[in-house]
Amino acid sequence: MSENADPRTLHPSDGLDGTPQGQPGLTSETTPTPDHGESSYVGTGKLTRRRALITGGDSGIGRAVAIAFAREGADVAIVHLPEEEEDAASTAKLITATGRRALLIPGDVRDERFCQQAVELTVAEFGGLDVLVSNAAYQKSRESLECLETAEFERVFETNLYALLWFTKYALPHLGAGASIIVTTSIQAVSPAAELIDYAMTKAAQVAFVKAMAEELGARGIRVNGVAPGPIWTPLIPATDWPDKVAEFGKDTALGRPGQPAELAPAYVLLASDDGSYMSGGVIAVTGGKPF
Question: Catalytic residue positions?
Answer without folding.
Answer: 199
